Amino acid sequence: MKNVKELLATQSAKFNFISSKATVLEALVLMKVANVSYIIVRDDDQYKGIVCEKDCLHKITLNGLKPEKTLVKDILIKDFPIVSPDDSTEHCLELMNSFQVLYLPVFNGHQFLGVISVYDILKETAEEQHIKHKHDYTYA
């Protein structure tokens, strides 16, 4: 399996950022337009956390809050585990499983590089399996 750096290299640059001062409704609209289920929260180019659709549903709907009046900073997740470019995808899966998260921010020191999702890892695994099976049939 590839490491995080190799997975990031296969992604198109899709950094979807929003300010912590934006409303949750603005975050949801941006997620919809970008066709993603999470958004990175940054203020002055500094990473603050992540907001996911699921969090919006749970924190807004179940608490009777209004997305047009609730600020992103009030629902963002600050304590996602993070990974480095050199981490293995196996390590990523272990973290995702342990913390029950679908996304992992990638940092090189303090520099934010992107996000690895469980879907990225599943896609890579499926492609590796396809290549392996194609190779097996070629020489059979």
UniProtKB/TrEMBL annotation:
The keyword Cytoplasm does not apply. SMART domains: CBS. The keyword Hydrolase does not apply. Pfam families: CBS. Keywords: CBS domain. Residues 76-131 form the CBS domain. InterPro entries: CBS_dom, CBS_dom_sf, Diverse_CBS-Domain. It comes from the Bacteria. This is CBS domain-containing protein. It comes from Hydrotalea sandarakina.
